[in-house]
Amino acid sequence: MSNKVSSNEEKQLLKALSNMKETVILEEDKRDKKLYATVEYPISLEDTLSKKTKAELDTIRKFYGLQGLSALKKAQLIEVLIESIVNQMESFLESIDAERMQVINKILQNGGYYAFTDLTHQKISYFRESGIVATGSINGERVLYIPADLVEQLKALCESTDIKQAVKQNTELLKITKGIIFYYGAVSYNELQSMIEKLLKKPVNLLMYLELLLDRRVYDSEIIFKDGYVQHDELEDLDKLKKEHKMRPHIGFYPFTKEQLFKASEPGYIDQTASYQQLVQYMVTHYPMKKSEAENIVGEIVFLIKIGKQFGEILLYLQEYIDFQDADEVNAFMNPVMTLVNHTKQWHLKGYAPKEIRKPNTNPTAVLATPDSSNIIDIKSRQKKVGRNELCPCGSGKKYKKCCGK
């Protein structure tokens, strides 16, 4: 059966993608018109809540765990929510981290509203659901705003030593957690608690800690909960990873320092080892590309190795960017790739690199499975694929690996 796409099929596919993109755009426009209706600032909390639908008010009610109020009429529910929001602002601030506190402070420092351009829809929804922050258009700009009658109280709370200390502790816990799942892929609740307590040298309340992670999960989805485990959002098969970990009872999890985990928690972090630099230099020397482009490609290869992708999948990824001429060229390229594999910390090895756990005097061949021939594109055809880090062709605005490439 031919893998080639006919001209007619290609046109139909492009038309379908175009229609899909148009649908996404129309849905986003409809949503945005509702979220960013014109607001005259200053506006009170009561007036802000009055602009919301009953369903939106119920969402805020659930955010604060208020039960038995679903039968209330809208006006009655608004009265209850005003009291709850005012009384629980301190608890809300004590439960967030530095990133979310920065959003609150920017709004307060700008006179009650601020035009954010770097917040995802999910993050904006989180703040809206708190009832403390709302969205609207002020002076023609789409903004997040805090109702005027909450501003002074919030300013005072944000300057509180207790609040600042709570935010600092939350930030530290979340960074360590993200660093842990960055290197291990997934760990059980008990393992995670033990790791945290060892790093911080103090006991940690597991329930309160998991509530902190769950709240962050609502904010940005970086942390996944499944079957008693906390896992990385790119982990595809938790059961397989659990089996891989159990197959290596003779080694514990790699003992990362708190500083190492902090670094790994940063968005886009890559451990730029000597083997990473070597492959970057190889690509710049042998192919017409800038160093920044080579770094992006090698960074993705590091991630593919870390999460356990096979040789064939790495080659598939490379063929998105490099037109290999023959098998000899592929083999020459894979030599520095194999070195990179040996020096890359991997999920199935509990955060170790193969070189760190290999017995002395053993063959230095990298721990990488043989590719399935059905997964490799013919070198001569060089059919162009959508890169994992490129925007998805469906028009969602997300990276391909986060959308249709899952």
TrEMBL record:
Name of this protein: SEC-C domain-containing protein
Listed SUPFAM superfamilies: Sec-C motif (SSF103642)
Matches recorded under PANTHER family: ADENYLATE CYCLASE-ASSOCIATED CAP C-TERMINAL DOMAIN-CONTAINING PROTEIN, UPF0225 PROTEIN SCO1677
UniProt cross-references to Pfam families, sorted A to Z: SEC-C (PF02810)
Record InterPro entries: SEC_C_motif
Gene3D superfamilies: 3.10.450.50
